[in-house]
Amino acid sequence: MPTEDMGGFTFAQGLILIVTASMFAPSMANKDWPHKGGSHHPNKIIVGGSEGWRFNFSYTDWAIKNGPVYLNDTLVFKYDPPTDNTTIPHNVYLLPNHWSFLNCNFTGAQILADVTQGGGDGFAFVLKEWKPHYFACGVHDGAHCSFGQMKFFVVPFPVGSND
Ligand SMILES: [Cu+2]
To answer: What gap in Å lies between CA 154 and CA 131, rounded to an integer?
Structure first.
């Protein structure tokens, strides 16, 4: 039937529009995308820089100042394991969505690293997916997230091909 054909065609066109729009969105947010004159070498980024992963440091500010991240970049979380009572333990969770991020709600969150995994060279997480990644510390029922600013999100940009 012509009507159904028309409806299917329109739906397909709509999908193409959505996909095309989302493909070009990063180029508007980031002048460096896609990289020109060479491929992107994956970076290793220490979360918080010399501050590491700790209580009472704005990782949202840090993430903004750090600039764009790209697919296959590695985020490294460094925090001391709880060796004695003087060390405040931390961990790393991936929150499922923006609402859980805003509210520091860990329902459905995925633990990436426990309190022992931030020692030494730190816990390394490779950004493999083109989507928002919501990171947070889940210690004390999310108190480090809510009151200690231990949360941030990044959207790794795809890497442009060589020109
Ligand atoms: Cu913490």
So the answer is: 8
Bond prior to 34 in cis (omega within 30° of 0): yes
Residues contacting 85, CB < 8 A, separation 6+: none
pLDDT digits (tens, 9 = 90+) for 111-157: 999 999 999 999 999 999 999 999 999 999 999 999 999 999 999 99
Which residues lie closer than 8 Å to 154 by C-beta, 6 or more apart?
A: 63, 69, 75, 127, 132, 133, 135
Question: SS3 of 119, please?
Answer: coil
Report CA(67)–ligand 1 centroid distance (Å): 23
- Residue 83 pLDDT: 80
- Going from the Cα of 128 to the center of ligand 1, the distance in angstroms, rounded, reads 24
Does 111 or 10 have the greater pLDDT score? 111
The one-letter code for the residue type at 111 is I
Prediction pTM value: 0.74
Report residue 74 as tokens.
Answer: 């590695």
Expressed in angstroms and rounded, the spacing between residue 145 Cα and the centre of ligand 1 is 7
